[in-house]
Structure prediction request, 741 residues.
Amino acid sequence: KPAVRSAARTQARQPVPITPTASSLTAGITPSVARALLYQAPAGQTETTIDRSQFENRPAFSVADVLRESPGISVKQGNGPRDIGISIRGSNARNGFGIRNLVIFEDGFPVTQPDGLSRSDLIDPKAYSAIDVIRGPSSALFGNYATGGALNFRTRPGRTIDGVEYGVEGGSFGYLNNYLATGKKVGNFEGSLFASDARGDGFIGNSWFNTQTVNFLGTLQATPDDRFTVKFINNNLDTRLPLRQTLTQYYQNPYQQGCTTGGNVALGCPTVSLFNNGFNGLTTPQTATEAGLGRFDRRTIVGGRWEHDFDNTTTWRNQFVFDDRNINQPTGSTSAIGDFPSYNYMSDITKRGEIFGLESTVYFGAFYNTLTASSDSRFVMPGGNATLGRLQSNTWSDTTNYGVRAREELKLTPQLTAIAGIGWEATHLKGINTAYNYGTSPVPNPTIIPTTADRQFQNTAPELALLYKLNPEWLFRARVATGYGTPQVSNLFVLSTGAPGNNTQLQTQTNLGYDIGFDWTPNSALKFSATGFYEFFRNELVSQATQVSGVSYMFNAPRSEHRGIELAADWKFYRGWRFTAAYTYLDQFYTEYTEDIRSTGAGGTVFSFNRAGNKIPGISPHELTARLGYEQMWGPLAGLGAFVEVQWKDSFYMDNANLQRAPGYELVNLNVHYKTDLISDYFKSLNVYFEVRNVFDRTYVASANNIQNTVTGGVQGLSGTGSIYAGSPRAFIAGMKLAFK
Prediction:
């Protein structure tokens, strides 16, 4: 896949970085920088860059702590301490785990695997200098799965660290994070290395965690025209995992206290039924603590990039990434075990010049990526420590994507720039799911039931955008673009009951989106952005939890519409004072979808329900993050600062029938921090901070997966599936960072 941003930090032709505006998109810059601007903030597309200054002086344990700074972004707690579901314009809010419907990069290297799954376990925000949030359908530039947009995490360049930094933060619920950053630019080489060790007891029963992350970026200017970049990421995760609760259980016991024994547990404790013999027959209900549920995963990514400048206007780039996701996940009644190695190769050319006397930047690239894996699902049985029983199913899968894409940015007038792009991609999904049916016999002699899938998809995604720079204060944006996302092979073998079976009829989801917006910057102290969007989906892939704990079912909703408004403000209204806000309004609903539900009991009647007009579950209509801060800029207290932050998330439906809502919430956070330079032969600076989160100790829902509807006596109801994780109660966190020369 093409990178979001060039990671080359050292170049023979040192350009002056510029902001990609309509008045000067390409003039006076090398092709490497032109390409960097093209991918970091694609012209004409709605984009927000979250700068390190916005989160450097606060605890930032996971991406949830920093991405709220951008409108259009929604986050929810996943299955693990740093496993955060990231949604752009509601794109991933409907998924039960991980991240779908957007593409993620680090320094231009893809960290979304070829099957479209991303996970945020490997992301420690302290490693990054900035995060680019690109919103709206973006498959013309980023390919498969970019129906919602893309994210690019930019690690800190070595020259900005210029030495060694050590930091530590800790606080409530046994949280402790030790981290180290080192970087330098020496001659033609620039590199940075980040490492962290984070652990804690968790605020929910059975949520203890221990995770380590290493992140390296290095660039060598081998010749005046050749740059080599290496990227390495490794994350180890060892975490206990609680069960999700129903809404009733959440109200009774949100933090799952006293949920240690299945026979005598506190009110509101979720349990999972485990086969006593590990494959069929009698079951015993056990809590997450009794069963020993958790995740024991490793993720390793190694990437390399070679860039060659043919001349001052043309650059050729080749990039290769190896990404291995190794999982052991006893998260419910079954455990997923497997290794998912993938390979990603891309090659592209960027050319800057003129067409008919007009300034032009042209990009053309080709790519190929593949993932081949074999994974098992085994029954979890009583006995503790996630004791494994017999094999429930095995899935062999192969996912391959290849294609080409092109893009043109043309400056029509000094004020008007046009952008056009198109991407074509072929996807091949192959897989065999072998289910083991043990029947009622006490002897483990299963009936083997294979289900095969061999699906091929071809998708094309055009886009067109216009930028109009009225004057230095006003920039207007308009865009029409398309996105597409194929299902994962694993989606093809799960029935709505949660059992293995044939779901191979799934289709590619596509969306056509219209954006119109403006950026108003009347002076250096104020920036205000507004964007309205309307997107039309076909065959939208929607996930809902099944009655099998930890197993989700995927289906296509034939037609749906997504529309909304995104607002962002940054106002330095008085010396030392700063107000920032990010607001998102979402209105998403089915326009064509009939759901068939079988009534309870053996041989139950199938009822059909028209969902047209119903809200799509999982989508909060209103979200707001606002912050008011003060920084002392002079005098003996220079470097002392504080802010108060408000987070608001509105209630949202949890089911297709719109019978049940997850409650909304408002949180208040307070922060005090101090940073000072040190006069020393060894130390450069000291940064200390203290934060109180959820000041008023609100009980709130941090995650609520979509749940099934049921039918009893012809009347719709709700399944008893666990869906909810509570958010953190009031927490106190303190930290410090010391920079060495």
About this structure: The longest strand covers residues 447-471.
